[in-house]
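[agent] plan:
  1. take the single chain provided in the ticket
  2. run structure prediction with default settings
  3. attach structure tokens to the ticket
  4. add a short note for the reviewer (M.T.)
[agent] executing step 1
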Amino acid sequence: MSDIENTTGEEIEKLMSLAHDSSKDARAALFDGITDLIEAQHQQISITEIDLMMDILSKIICDIEVNIRKKLALKLADRADLPAELIILLANDEIEVANPILLQNTLLTDKELVRIIQRKSRQHQLSIAARKMLSSDVCRELVRTDDDDVIVTLLSNQEAKIDNDTIEQIVEKSKTREILQSPLVHRQDLPKHIAARMYSWISMSLKSELMEIHSFTEEELEEQLESSIKELKKEDNLNGQTVDAEVTLIAKLKKANKLHISFLMKSLRQGNTRLFELAFAEILNVPEDIMCNILYERGPAALAIACCAARIDKSVFLTMFRLTREAKMMDTELSQSEIEHTYSQFVNTNEQRAKLILHKWVEDSARTPIF
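[agent] step 2 finished; step 3 output follows
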């Protein structure tokens, strides 16, 4: 047996004798002695002796001043050559002690990190969310906390490997939780198709940042949004009843490229309101229920937006508004201020902008039923 092994064995025996003394000074000396020995000579200590010392530490650690434990954690935070048991013990300590370990130490496995997320405090979760090179499993567990601050910290951690399924969950939350939107937009690895979907509900300032960060053109955004609308329309058709003659007629006219504004107005003037609604919905590429909501629920300004998107001149607007309202026995009168506001939509809204507004209405309806 070497001199080093003899010395280590003697030190362990002295520490074990201290374990029987419950005084504060003895506890402090025992804590310092064990941690110093493990730090300096852990390679000469057997697994059994390590387990014994860790068992002692776990029992006395609460009797040691936080400042002493904190200093130890700071000293060991970046050490990867120590027994993992000591690092795990410190990582599960109070947050003042655990923080540097949770942020830096590479000995903590995904399994241990998940366990800490599940069992320890919100502050522990926040520290883990800021940790470098987080795996997708740990990211998923952090999102399961459903804590906005934890999720924002995770999103701001550009080194975290957040998989697409987890990103989708966060995006869904961001529809009603604005605090998540900006950090999502600023994720460099945000999939482009998901970024395009977010365009429908984020603020104008974030729209500009999204287009710049993810290199979108307005045409690409429109294409992505139209794809989402088509999926909604497919679902609407699957949930509907058997296809009637009016739906078949609209499909044939569209296929023959004969679905024009003149057909819209002819149907409306002949009193075939349903045919008008179906044709207008097809021209705008929106579900039928959204079209009815635009016509009868959102007011004249919404109809003006729909007209802009379909390139219908404002000279046709008043006739369309009056005939659709008469068909539903609704009030057809507009005040002068309503007319002025509505006409301002034609002046200030181009076709592309109008389509983006329609897309947003469709996205909103997918989250909250209109009727």
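[agent] step 4 note for reviewer: Residues 1-7, 238-243 have pLDDT under 50 and may be disordered.
[agent] ticket updated
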